[in-house]
Amino acid sequence: MRATLEALLDDALAEILPGRVVWVALSGGLDSTLLLTLAVPSARRHGVVLRAIHVNHGLQQAAGDFEAHCRRLCASLEVPLTVAAVSMTADGKGVEAAAREARYAAFRQHVAAGDVLWLAQHADDQAETLLLAALRGSGVRGLAGMPAQREWQGIVCQRPWLEVERAALGAEAERLGLAWCDDPTNADTQFDRNYLRHRVMVPLRERWPHAAASLGRSAAWLQEADGLLAELAAIDLAAAGGDPACLPLAPMRSLSEPRRRLLIRHALSLSGLPHPPAARLAELVQQSSLAARDRLPTLRWPGAEARIWRDRLYLMEPLAPPDPRWRVRWDGVSPLTTPWGRYTSTLRPEEDMASEATLLVTLRRGGERLRIAGRGSRDVKRLLQEAELPPWQRQRVPLVWCGERLVAVLGVAVGEGWREQ
């Protein structure tokens, strides 16, 4: 079995670009201890720099023992170790989910973009993930489980032993005489994954000895199906203009409801926004079919919101109400950062003598007017309507003043005697 395990590592290392560092996520348990132990000779054969990272969640008394084990193991293997101590709060998500978020935040902090992160999950983990997703009523993406490789935050995450069963890893670790730490919480069946591991998978194996491998193959087929759905969604997004943050409703209405749901989920994923609950997604699909051009329905869910205006669906992060008292001094040249966006254009007077004027940037309060060359004095409210900006954006457009005079509505119109570039 060792030859097979090392061959899987060699195959993974053969695809790594020169100069990339391989990090092993080292918990101190059996799986990651064996992974790091066998990764050392493989990395040397391929001339790859190997490092390890241990995340100490501090959730139990044994956390210090896990960290000490990882330090001893890395010292004996001459592998540099990074220890990341994290603090976490469940916030209604459950301890397992909160720990996972904290762990990945640590990976993002310490592993450089372009590097490779090896995770020691195996076939039994994949089977448990699929069953958990099915019991939660997940769709194709959830049922597809964990991919053998994916890019996340610029990091290449690989699971080289995803098709290997836990029993094979345990047998090899015993044969090598390895020491590892057993997490005492792994026996607590109050946690869903542990319940599946001890109360469900055991009788499944008694009836179907290769249950984990079979479920893993199903997950692989579902991953392929998920990839095909992503290709279909990409085709529909291209037909809708290609902007995931702004979807025209006319081409969406020509799609079936399942394809509309797929397109919306795809657009949200591309924008880094969370998917809505099923009921809210169904409501959003219905609104996209019925919303009149002059209506402005808004649907919200944790971490995102959707607005429909003028036959377009806008997907965005939740918008905080603008503070009408907001103001900032600006030199007209440096990038202007506001709570609602960053502006890189410059604003300068046409007369050099006024080039040192200090500008004040505010938001609308109502009644402002801008004198435009060849057009006279124009109401700012009217200018924003003519620019066809969505109403929520109009409230956040910066107004630039030179003394008591309004000289620009950034990105919309420039006052007489001034130029925006």
**What is the name of the CATH class of the largest domain?**
Alpha Beta
* Distance between the amino and carboxyl termini: 66 Å
Can you tell me the number of structural domains?
A: 3
Total helical segments: 14
Which fold does the CATH topology of the largest domain refer to?
Rossmann fold
What share of the residues does DSSP label as strand, in percent? 15-25%
CATH H-level homologous superfamily name of the largest domain:
HUPs
Are there runs of 5+ residues with pLDDT below 50, and where? Answer: none
Provide mean pLDDT, rounded. 90
Taking strands numbered 1, 2, ... along the chain, how are they ordered across the largest sheet? Answer: 3-2-1-4-6-5
Keywords:
421 residues; alpha+beta; Rossmann fold; Uridine Diphospho-n-acetylenolpyruvylglucosamine Reductase, domain 3; six-stranded mixed beta sheet; five-stranded antiparallel beta sheet; 14 helices; elongated
Describe this structure in words.
There is one protein chain. By secondary structure, the protein is α+β, with helices and mostly antiparallel strands. The chain folds into 3 domains: 2-208, 3-Layer(aba) Sandwich (Rossmann fold), CATH 3.40.50; 240-316, Uridine Diphospho-n-acetylenolpyruvylglucosamine Reductase, domain 3 (2-Layer Sandwich); 327-420, no CATH class. It is built from 14 helices and 21 strands. It has a 6-stranded mixed β-sheet. Strands 11-15-18-19-20 form a 5-stranded antiparallel β-sheet, with no helix packed on it. It is elongated and about 85 Å long. The model has no long low-confidence stretch (mean pLDDT 90).
